[in-house]
Amino acid sequence: MTARLDHLVIAARTLDEGRAWLEGRLGVPMQPGGEHAAYGTHNALLSLGPDAYAEVIAVNPAAPAPGRPRWFALDTDEMRAQLDAGPALIHWVAAVEGLDPGPEVPELSRGEHRWRVTVPATGALPMYGVAPSLIHWLTPPPSTRLPDAGVRLVKLQLGTAHPDRLRARLDALQFEGEVEVYEAPQAELRAVLRTPGGLVTL
After folding, report:
1. Structural domains in the chain, sorted by start
2. CA distance 153 to 39
3. Which of 25, 79, 102, 200 is at a distance of 20 to 30 A from 9, taking alpha carbons?
């Protein structure tokens, strides 16, 4: 199994807040996404080229509460406190060639898109967000249909108190991509992006 970056996950208290924040940082418009009924969230998307994209995600106030913890730790007090300070890059997702369905690998859909993704029963982020969730697309991914905004990922920087453990995970996935793993007292995620206006770090 080989893996590559599929998308970056930026979370916000509201979708409008997150979208305005990312558009303001990058200087390019985002595209409408849709709703995730199973988790009570909705999103907006931005192309990072033909094989990757950025997602802004937030709790959908118009959706009923799901009968399970929301993904990306959005229900936790810690995440709510973090997002009270503003939208943030919290996680990333790697595309793999296949995933067997199961209780923690639900098959989901949004509009015309269908996929399987790893979601712990608790909704927790693997290694506090620096280890990727995994996704297997059953239909062409959004990156193949989003308009090119001229934004590209230069490097994903991942800080963790357990760098050897994270490197071992990525090696086991045969991950291919520009990722820098370094030691840090707590989880840190930064994405260096090339935009029409120059380099921007999220």
Report:
1. 3-148 (3.10.180.10)
2. 27
3. 102
Average pLDDT over residues 169-196: 96
Amino acid 90 reads I
- Which tokens belong to 95? 């595309």
**For the purposes of burial, counting CB atoms within 10 Å of the CB of 184, is it exposed (0-12), middle (13-18) or buried (19 or more)?**
middle
Torsion angle of C-alpha atoms 53, 8, 31, 105, degrees rounded to 10 = 90
Task: For residue range 107-163, list pLDDT tens digits in order.
Answer: 988 888 999 999 999 999 999 999 999 999 999 999 999 999 999 999 999 999 999
Return the sign of the alpha-carbon dihedral for residues 22, 105, 164, 48.
negative
Q: What is the reported pTM?
A: 0.95
| pLDDT at res. 157 | 98
Q: CA-CA distance, 141 to 32, in Å (whole number)?
A: 15
Q: Which residues of 81-104 are buried (b: 16+ CB within 10 A; e: fewer)?
A: eebeeebbbbbbbbbbeebeeeee
* Residues 59, 149: Cα–Cα separation, whole Å: 26
Residue 41 contacts residue 35 (beta carbons within 8 Å): yes
Residue 151 buriedness (CB in 10 A; 0-12 / 13-18 / 19+): buried
pLDDT tens, position by position, 21-66: 999 999 999 999 989 988 999 999 999 999 999 999 999 999 998 9
